[in-house]
Amino acid sequence: MNFKEAFNPLRALKSAFETMNLQPAHLWGGALLLMVIEQGAGISFQFVQPAVNALGPEMMVWFLCGSCVAMLGLYMLATWLFAGLLATLRSVLLTGEVGEGGLFDHRGKFLPLLFTRILVVLCSIPLIIPGLLVMAIPIFIGVRFIDSGGGLVAIGGVALIFLGVIVGYAIILYAVVGIMLAEAAVVFEDLRPTQAIARSWSLASGNRWRLALFFIVNALFTLLGFLACCVGVFATGCIARLATAEAFLQLIAGEDGSAAASPRAPADEGREIKLD
Length: 276
Prior knowledge:
The chain is mostly helical and 276 residues long.
């Protein structure tokens, strides 16, 4: 597939859902477990204020240190599981089977993926600065307009703030999506962290708005789960998370002219599809 077809969000979400249903215990179970682990560290910080009230301010430092250690441990565990989950997704997509190693075998990708995730965060910092500046200036001016008087001046200030936020977020999204495929590049193409960042940036070149739309649709699809009493977000979040990996696999499957991968049942003995 070309980039436009591979990163069609509706196609990718549908294909990810169909693939997950072939091996629900591994793919649905693994994706749910990954969501729980990744949310675990954030949940721990919600107990800081109750801990301070119950144990006193002197305990806050120890509680924060413990939370940081727990967050680091959960982050490493999530990285381990994520590598195995993507490898399992690839195997199921091609053959309908889980493949050797199973869900908890990172296939030697744990350290490269961990360093890539850290590098993505570090690279994101300078990428978001221009967007933050574009956002901050209209907000500063808009607040002064609102404070200086009412009527049309205040309305103009609100409009300026709104426009600044929209443009700022658009700039941030345009820049950051260039490195959001690095994790898949590590797992599926066996690249080093710096190579994965470069590969992601190269794939996004000329396709940034299409890639940005892909992640926006995935985010909106995830939020739809909240309409089902918040419980549905676990299902929509799992599908959206694996849709990115599915789209990446479809893209690299077509780079050498081979057929694109598609969900197949274990009994489907089709020809093997070369992905790398």
